[in-house]
Amino acid sequence: MTGKRRSQWIAGLFVLAVLTYLYAPIIVIVLFSFTTSPRLSMPIEGLTFDWYRSALDNPLILSALTNSLVLALISAVAAGIMGAAFSFGLMRLKRPHVREALIGASLLPAIVPLLVIGISLAVFFRVLGMPQGLINTAIGHLIVCLPFVVLTMNARLETFDFSMLEAARDLGATPVRTFLDITFPLIRPSVVGAALLAAALSLDEFVITWFNIGNQQSVPVLVWGMMRRGVDPSINAIATLLLTLLVGLVICSNLLGRKKRS
Amino acid sequence: MLSLFVLSFWRAKGFELIPDFTLANYEKAVVSKLYRTLLVRTVLVGFVTAAIVVPIAFALSYAMRFVFERRGQLILQLVLLSLFSGYLVRIYAWRTILGKQGLLNSTLQWLGLINEPLEFLIYSNIAVVITLSGLLLPLAVLPIYSALLNVSRDQMEAARDLGAGRVHLIRTILLPLAMPGVRTAFAFAFLLAAGDFVTPTLVGGTQSLLIGNIIADQFRGIGSNWPLGAALAFVTIAIVLVIYLAVVQILARVTR
Lengths: 262, 256
Known about the structure:
The complex is a heterodimer.
Chain A: H1 2-32, H2 50-57, H3 61-92, H4 96-107, H5 114-128, H6 134-157, H7 163-170, H8 175-204, H9 207-212, H10 219-229, H11 233-261
Helix pairs in contact in A: 1-11, 2-11, 3-6, 3-8, 3-10, 6-8, 7-8, 8-11, 10-11
Chain B: H1 2-16, H2 24-31, H3 33-67, H4 71-81, H5 87-98, H6 103-110, H7 125-148, H8 153-161, H9 166-194, H10 198-203, H11 211-219, H12 226-255
Helix pairs in contact in B: 2-12, 3-4, 3-7, 3-9, 5-7, 7-9, 9-12, 11-12
């Protein structure tokens, strides 16, 4: 028993160390968005909201935020619908080999560095003659979001009872009716959850955006410009706001998934 | 899947940007000493990052699966949540922590443990590896943890009852069963670390630029050269893939 206790302690300390490693950066940013000293160092001298004020005074923040929200909305709706349709189709496939192969193919973009996807798209659009801008970026975001949407949808559709659809059809329901009355109400929480995840991914996406947005702004592109110019504490303020939004979206997405399972 | 399509497209169209079909860009990419140095450094940084990330991810997954039975889920959620806490933000934060007057140095000085700031912490390869490992750890946990889900506790108990020691157990039962997950985790860490350009820009110095920086510069910035960037990208992809496949082969032989 004491041996088991001891190994639990060691494992606990290890897990704590790893979590500290993962969360230290986030805590630091949030903390320093409220401190008076512009030099980010210890000890802390005082607290202030000034950095939030100067962040909101930035003339570019409004257009950046608008663009980011538009991109997030497009990603959420498009990735939600496409991802749901794709994994719904997958689940109905009878041959496991084909299914495995298709799942693998749909997850491939997740393992390709964003730099490669970003420049590939830039070249692709240039060849097509499309000027850089929000549309190109939105398509790029869709590529980043789809693997994650498909992954979450697959996990959640595993418990879906397809025989219900057959029952409805046997009782004379048209495919459209079946979808509206049975399929959609049942999968709605999963689809919305996956869509929120896509919105979060899109809001945070920088690399693909950077190569495709041209001279427009998005929140990460704006932040990147500020970071390269040097230490500006209002970066911490913008980052904290973005962080709150992202974590909120992901937690909502998770809660929606859980409700369906119970 | 769309990206795969685009990617295959790119191979052909990348060269069409230049009026005549030429291998000069590839020649430049292979012959240039600067690019070669950067490529070697990129591969090393990617490899070291993966070598740090994969064992930690394995130990963490092991703890979540077999030590903390029910709280393991909560820990997993926390680990994955950190993925959604801002990509740029987390890299920038490491600059804040590791900087010359950053959190770590100023705290150590405040505590009187050091007199001069530790300069190797920032704008160095070490800073790049520390930051990349933090970014990629959650991604590496995912495949390893799901591979460990396939190993039942009963199997572990049975082996233990038959007198297998912990190390023996991990080596002969757990590792072979978790191998597909370990392989995926290694791929994530190695490929994504080798393809990152934001981290070396923000926390790396002039001595720790990676090939990604050069490629990115060819596509955005003054004096950009798209065809050269494309050639560099393909040379990098080819080298990284060959090394990845070699590592997978070696891993497979070692665990057999």
